[in-house]
Specification:
heterodimer, A: about 450 residues, alpha/beta, Spore Coat Polysaccharide Biosynthesis Protein SpsA, Chain A, 6-stranded parallel beta sheet, B: 7-stranded mixed beta sheet, protein biosynthesis (chain A), cytoplasm (chain A)
Chain lengths: ~450, ~525
């Protein structure tokens, strides 16, 4: 077998607590399907037959109850439960399932919605015998108004600096603005090997990683690494140019010495080299190919650890970890995934999704919205640009615009909601008016 | 016996018609004839598509019909006049079952044609991919006209829809995706595949590849992207992948390792062929491995068999590639004298090795590296030589005639050495050899014996490889003139990979068996076959 798929579904959704305080992030409905259905669907489409799902007990219970996952997902899901206390990072989770890992792995996060051609990422991994291959995408501006946001102010996100080489495939360095104190410093060794570096900031990390099995073995020896994105990936990217690999010592790497001390003692190199190393070396020597030109070194500069990235410029790639992303995802998904239930006598736009066993009365207008399962919408209701989750009751004459109504909420008669977020099981008073409010506990 | 055939049946029919009783001999002969007729009927069905394809070729109305008609007739066998009588015979005897009474002249002509065909088939050796109509050879029925038809390899019959259909069916059976051709093909080469690098075969595969071993998928990707390029590198990488396959292989119950493993390898080889057409050296390596696998005794335990096979692979690589390179270097160094100016073309791992070894042995020489677009492999050769300290000059192939007056020797690498002494190598090699001949500069070709191939070619059209035409597009100063070449209907981009150099331009071939003239290649092949 070539790859084992691992789905990380234990995340807490710390950046959208309004939505996730009741429903775990993995089961948030997007287009009437639980969020984790999308990465599972992606894996199924490319041909995986088994997935290891790392999640919490709560999510596991909800998964077994959810019809979408039970029926639509034909793959075998092996669920591994971990504690909910949130101390376990993604790398810790990998360490936890290390006995199950027999081959290279493909790690996917449960909040990824994408239509990327996965073979592009995997081909980089295979062709260059890489240690890490990841997927990134050009970030899209979120155009929808988000409830709770005052105006169009974008939250000050910490920028990610991603450095790639000329071809745009090899990952040279990765740094987050939060970790940099004075400025961005690039090691001379990197510049000497790759004189032209493209630094990109507007990229979204899709959290889809192809990792070699030796990395998982390395993780078991180094218990200090707990997050894949936060610690493991930058470590691997840094280690590509580490002096220990190339076996050369130069003067200008004092900082590298310090880093070496803080880095783990076990040499990742030992894990990477395969059994038939001399044959592979011979093939590479005899091959008249080089990945760069202009200097005297061989292909890959003789480095065995290589990290690659595939940057998508077209297509869908969303990580649903903020409220804005959640709303945007709902909007997009109604365009791309299948729409069900066309009712007559009412005005439903073709870009809306209506869930199963819904009751939509006459003279309602539903535009660009997602209505969950078992929702009741009474007469003369206008729903525009909104997300209504399951089991919601909307009484007559309501006007809901640009809002998110969580499950089992009841919107009283004649209510007027603009850009609001109504929490689970809440009640909005009849004739109530709410504008740009996030309400959790009435 | 052979000559009497038609006459005897004529006699028999006459006797039958006359109502006389048949003698014992005649009855036996009749029985034999009936059996052969039945076999010929079956063979006729096999022959029919080939005949229709042969007839189709001359009938095609493309402007290059003349040129395309020529290669098919040359294709069929070893360039002996066998093909000429073949279409004639085919049209002459549409239904060999019916035996109308033929005139003596007609019978004589048929006999002559048959004899020529059989002579030709006896002379031609078994091609590496050509499944000779061995049944037809063995059964050459005395009474029927059996033109010796060799099945042409699929990869040079891309413009024949039936062959493509057969290929598609075969790949479907093996569960391997079919790679579709890309772009407009120049008409002279429309019988070859042309793939695009931007449409890899892995697009159609499931990601955890279950049908094809991951090592083979990785290898196929590396071939199609050019990461592993060069005859030796490709063979070594292939054998490395085979080692992994053998390691991960387990014999299913009720199967024998010797037979099942060979069957397992077939779809992998088809997959690799789809990614990039196999080279002659890879073909020979595969033949060797298949032979070794089938020679495993059935009572051998699985673990033992597997380790034995792995040792065989290591041994093959060691002998045929590593030690051969050492031997060739030893011979070649004798030919390099102090003060030499050596011209090399492109990046041949063997020639680079020789030059580096000669430099270690303190020979004083300098090198001129000739390079050509679009591959620009010479840059890699230049890097390797300069890294060792050899002083080099770098020119493009358009400057070859300017630089040749300075050159004292030309060292060329080879992709394969064909049975008629032609050297198949990177496109441009024949030009270099030609110009060198015009300047009376000796041309030495270095080639290991495992690259010797039993194929015969006299031109570069018949069997070649078409690389991605988009490689020819270059962007200078922000402008890409050929960007929309597909929209121009009268424009075709051709990116050839190989060409053949006639033996008259090659003065010496340095192999691990010694230094031989180009025309001795068939001798080496014959000796090799006898050994095996």
């Amino acid at each position: 077998m070539e790859f084992q798929a691992v789905l990380m579904a234990a995340g807490g959704g710390s950046r959208m607590t309004d939505l996730t305080y009741n429903t775990p992030k993995a089961m948030l409905p997007v287009g009437n399907k639980p969020l984790m259905w999308y990465p599972l669907n992606l894996l199924e489409r490319v041909g995986f037959e088994e997935v290891i799902v790392i999640t919490t007990k709560e999510v596991q219970k909800m998964m077994s109850a959810d019809p979408k996952i039970k029926q639509d997902v034909k793959m075998k899901l092996e669920v591994v439960c971990i504690q909910e206390d949130g101390d376990m990072g993604t790398a810790d989770a990998l360490r936890h399932i290390q006995p199950k890992i027999k081959t290279d792995i493909l790690v996917v996060s449960c909040d990824l919605i994408t239509d990327a051609a996965l073979h592009e990422v995997v081909d980089l991994f295979r062709a260059h015998n890489a240690t890490l291959a990841m997927l990134m995408s050009k970030a899209h501006e979120f155009t929808e108004t988000v409830p709770g946001q005052k105006g169009k102010k974008k939250t000050a996100e910490q920028r990610d600096f991603v450095g790639v080489d000329e071809s745009g495939k090899r990952l040279l360095f990765m740094a987050n603005e939060a970790d940099l104190e004075e400025g961005l410093s690039i090691r001379k060794s990197i510049l000497r090997k790759h004189p032209r570096v493209h630094i990109k900031t507007g990229l979204v990390d899709a959290h889809l990683y192809c990792l070699k099995k030796s990395v998982v073995d390395f993780l078991t020896d180094n218990k200090s690494i707990s997050s894949i994105r936060g610690e493991l990936v930058p470590y691997l990217v840094r280690k590509q140019f580490s002096k220990t690999i190339n076996g050369q010592k130069t003067k200008d790497d004092v900082e590298d010495q310090n880093q070496k001390k803080s880095d783990s003692s076990t040499n990742l190199e030992l894990h990477i080299s395969s059994r038939d190393e001399p044959l592979l070396q011979l093939a590479q020597e005899r091959s008249c190919w080089n990945d760069h030109r202009g200097d005297m070194s061989e292909a890959y500069h003789g480095g065995k650890l290589r990290c690659y990235v595939h940057i998508m410029d077209q297509g869908l790639c969303y990580r649903v970890n903020t409220l804005a992303a959640y709303i945007e995802a709902n909007r997009l998904v109604s365009g791309t995934y299948d729409v069900l239930n066309v009712f007559y006598c009412i005005n439903i736009g073709s870009d809306s999704i209506i869930g199963a066993s819904c009751q939509v009365a006459e003279k309602t207008s539903i535009k660009r919205s997602t209505i969950g399962n078992s929702t009741t919408v009474k007469e003369k209701v206008k729903v525009t640009n909104s997300i209504i989750m399951h089991g919601v009751t909307i009484e007559e004459g309501c006007n809901i615009q640009g809002s998110v109504i969580c499950s089992n909420a009841i919107i009283g008669r004649g209510a007027d909601l603009k850009y609001c977020l109504v929490g689970n099981g809440q009640r909005i008073e009849p004739e109530g008016e709410a504008h740009n409010i996030i309400g959790n506990d009435a | 016996m052979l000559a009497d055939g038609p006459e005897k049946t004529g006699d028999i029919e006459r006797i039958k018609n006359e109502g006389k009783e048949l003698t014992k001999e005649e009855k036996q002969r009749l029985r034999k004839e009936k059996k052969q007729q039945k076999k010929n009927k079956e063979k006729k069905d096999e022959k029919a598509p080939l005949e229709s394809e042969k007839e189709k070729k001359p009938a095609s109305s493309s402007p290059a019909s003349q040129a395309t008609a020529q290669p098919p007739t040359q294709k069929a066998s070893s360039g002996v006049p066998a093909p000429a009588p073949v279409p004639v015979a085919a049209s002459e005897a549409p239904s060999p079952v019916d035996k109308p009474a033929k005139s003596k002249a007609e019978l004589k002509a048929e006999r002559r044609a048959r004899q020529e065909a059989e002579r030709a088939s006896k002379q031609s050796k078994k091609g590496e991919v050509g499944q000779q109509a061995a049944p037809s050879k063995a059964k050459a029925p005395p009474s029927e006209l059996q033109p010796v038809v060799k099945r042409l390899p699929e990869h040079i019959q891309v413009d024949n829809p039936e062959v493509l259909k057969k290929l598609a069916k075969k790949l479907e059976r093996q569960q391997i995706p079919l790679r579709s051709d890309y772009g407009y093909k120049v008409s002279l080469f429309s019988h070859l595949h042309q793939y695009s690098r931007k449409a890899p075969l892995t697009q159609q595969l499931s990601i955890p590849s279950s049908v094809i071993h991951p090592a083979i998928v990785q290898l196929g990707l590396q071939y199609s992207q050019g990461i592993v390029a060069g005859s030796n590198a490709r063979s070594v990488a292939l054998l490395h992948a085979f080692k992994q396959i053998i390691r991960d292989y387990t014999t299913p119950p009720n199967e024998e390792l010797s037979r099942d493993l060979v069957n397992k390898l077939k779809p992998y080889i088809s997959f690799l062929n789809q990614c990039r057409p196999l080279s002659a050296s890879m073909g020979n390596a595969i033949k060797y491995i298949k032979k070794e696998i089938s020679n495993i005794p059935s009572q051998c335990k699985e673990e033992e068999a597997k380790s034995k096979l792995q040792d065989c692979i290591d041994c093959y690589i060691n002998e045929k590639i590593i030690l051969a390179a050492k031997a060739i270097a030893k011979y070649a160094i004798e030919k390099i004298s102090d003060g030499d100016v050596i011209l090399v073309y492109g990046c041949s791992s063997l020639v680079n090795h020789i030059l580096c070894e000669a430099f270690e042995k303190n020979r004083k020489f300098r090198v001129i590296v000739v390079d050509s677009r679009p591959r620009l492999e010479g840059r890699e050769a230049l890097r390797r030589l300069v890294q060792r300290g050899i002083s080099c000059t770098y020119v493009l192939i358009s400057a070859v005639s300017y630089i040749l007056p300075e050159v004292s020797k030309v060292f060329l690498g080879a992709h394969a050495l064909l049975a008629n002494g032609y050297v198949m190598s990177r496109v441009g090699t024949s030009q270099i050899a030609l110009v060198a001949k015009a300047f009376n500069v000796p041309v030495l070709v270095c080639c290991e014996t495992y690259k010797f191939c039993e194929r015969v070619q006299t031109d570069s059209f018949v069997s070649n490889e078409l690389d991605d035409p988009d490689d020819l597009i270059v962007t200078r100063k922000g402008k890409t003139h050929l960007e929309h070449w597909q929209d121009v209907s009268s424009l075709g981009l051709l990116n050839l990979v190989y060409d053949v150099t006639p033996p008259d331009f090659v003065d010496l071939v340095i192999t691990d068996l010694g230094m031989i003239p180009c025309t001795s290649v068939p001798v080496v092949l014959r000796v090799k076959n006898v050994d095996q």
